[in-house]
Amino acid sequence: MSDKLYIFDTTLRDGEQVPGCQLNTVEKIEVAKALESLGVDVIEAGFPVSSPGDFNSVVEISKAVTWPTICALTRAVENDIRVAADALRYAKHPRIHTGIGTSDPHIRYKFNSTREEILERAVAAVAYAKRYVEDVQFYAEDAGRTDNEYLARVVEAVIKAGATVINIPDTTGYCLPSEFGAKIKYLFDHVDGIDKVIIATHCHNDLGMATANTVSGIINGARQAEVTINGIGERAGNTALEEVVMTFRSHKELGIDTDINATRITGISSMVSSLMNMPVQPNKAIVGRNAFAHSSGIHQDGVLKNRESYEIIDPKDVGIDENSIVLTARSGRAALKHRLHVLGCELSSGELDKAYEAFLQLADRKKEINDDDVLMIAGQHRKASSRIKLDFLQVTSGIKVHSVASVGLDIAGEKFEACASGNGPVDAALSAIKNIIHRKMLLKEFLIQAINKGSNDVGKVHMTVEHEGVSYYGFSANTDIVAASAEAFIDAINKFVR
Ligand SMILES: CC(=O)SCCNC(=O)CCNC(=O)[C@H](O)C(C)(C)COP(=O)(O)OP(=O)(O)OC[C@H]1O[C@@H](n2cnc3c(N)ncnc32)[C@H](O)[C@@H]1OP(=O)(O)O
Ligand SMILES: CC(C)C(=O)C(=O)O
Ligand SMILES: [Mg+2]
């Protein structure tokens, strides 16, 4: 049985403080409901005294959400606490989160005060909040830079005043993981009554160590992680929910787990990113576009042989259907062959070698090779080694005239010619081919698409031809769409005359 780690999500409070991330009440309710489905234990819904809009959001989220605790932030100020209690009146499980800065710089510069005075204000705020709600969480702002001995005195005093959860924030993202872990351990070793409360971590990412510090704090006894979706938050952000959850899922030996339904992580990440206009960096752990994308040949080969060669998390576990194999100039034959297979093209090893050479030439010019490029490369190389090749094609077509095509085919080195008229140039060309290939063939599907834009574009033709009850797929791409159609038809025919 794993020890439960409580997930306290502050996307709607610390995340929403970020410039450009402000949400209206309707959007906040949408995020809160998604957080509830994700399985978070606590939603920090806002800072009610800060504005009428934030107050109203806390009221409406309290009504809309059933299971998670709804938390409202305050300063160690009586009016803030009264307003927060009022905003939480509909919450099924209300929590007031009050606190004050405890580091020397905060005491000296922010408050022009003393350690003793701050300790008294902390105790008074908790006692005051207890008049309104049972569940009172205390934060020692800038605990990361607070002297451990003094911090332990503050924590002990607020526990005596009735705090149920004690938040130890690394507000400025300053701590090293070992230092932050040692701070939590120090508190467990020196604070009377600490076993009666939950210790929380709230780490910022100024040095890129928010998740490492959170994990270190939890390993040392904290059991609530304060996090945001995608790690959004003040300055360099907060600890990312998805990183903490998947760290403990991936390291089962730590014996700690959350109630998060991780398959919803990708969905909520996109929702928050788009509502808050905060793009997720492509290499972001777990939720970045490249988190499950493999682009270099050696990795692609390894992953295609066995996913676990280069993946520690199954993408399905976080709500992604499958990993992606991105074709670039650093890809190898294994990746190209895999993509061709997915696209329904099987090449012999000689054909694959030739296609790979062409692929590398194109990939050196283009950053990423897409499926159309791959089909085009494969088509050219299949054509070169095909039994039947298009030798020439001439078409006369226009308005109020019959379309006529004359076609030359090279079949295993022998030349054949035929003419036909038809209902349009493609029909004429295909009829001429049929006049040479005396087999029963039925054109089942025929699709012409432009690859890019503009009248000088390459046209792609996908075709399905039925012969003796079996369907054969043909493809070609050419700036001349009649030629592309004739080639796609021949590509399909080559598959049953082989
Ligand atoms: C680390 C964090 O993320 S803390 C949360 C940060 N979030 C926010 O600040 C968003 C919401 N804030 C606000 O809307 C406003 O700042 C308010 C409503 C809280 C206060 O507004 P104002 O009264 O105009 O004060 P202002 O913002 O200029 O200054 C903050 C005051 O709060 C005091 N203060 C700051 N933190 C605390 C605290 N935890 N407990 C008590 N007082 C505090 C400051 O010392 C300062 O007081 P002073 O004016 O006497 O010097
Ligand atoms: C209000 C507190 C918890 C905070 O956000 C911080 O210290 O970073
Ligand atoms: Mg914070």
TrEMBL record:
Catalysed reaction equations from the record: 3-methyl-2-oxobutanoate + acetyl-CoA + H2O = (2S)-2-isopropylmalate + CoA + H(+)
Gene3D superfamilies: 1.10.238.260, 3.30.160.270, Aldolase class I (3.20.20.70)
Alphabetized UniProt keyword annotations: Acyltransferase, Amino-acid biosynthesis, Branched-chain amino acid biosynthesis, Cytoplasm, Leucine biosynthesis, Manganese, Metal-binding, Transferase
GO CC entries: cytoplasm
Annotated InterPro entries: 2-IPM_HCS-like, 2-isopropylmalate_synth_dimer, AIPM/Hcit_synth_CS, Aldolase_TIM, LeuA/HCS_post-cat, LeuA_allosteric_dom_sf, LeuA_bact_synth, PYR_CT
Residues noted as binding Mn(2+) in the record, renumbered to the chain: 14, 202, 204, 238
MF (Gene Ontology): 2-isopropylmalate synthase activity; acetyl-CoA C-acetyltransferase activity; manganese ion binding
E.C. code: 2.3.3.13
Pathway in which this enzyme or protein is active: Amino-acid biosynthesis; L-leucine biosynthesis; L-leucine from 3-methyl-2-oxobutanoate: step 1/4
Domain annotation Pyruvate carboxyltransferase: ranges: 5-266
Cofactor dependence: Mn(2+)
BP term (GO), one: L-leucine biosynthetic process
Region Regulatory domain, residue ranges: 389-498
One Pfam short name: HCS_D2
Subunit structure: Homodimer.
Main function: Catalyzes the condensation of the acetyl group of acetyl-CoA with 3-methyl-2-oxobutanoate (2-ketoisovalerate) to form 3-carboxy-3-hydroxy-4-methylpentanoate (2-isopropylmalate).
Record family assignment: Belongs to the alpha-IPM synthase/homocitrate synthase family. LeuA type 1 subfamily.
Name by which UniProt lists this protein: 2-isopropylmalate synthase
UniProt organism field: Duncaniella freteri
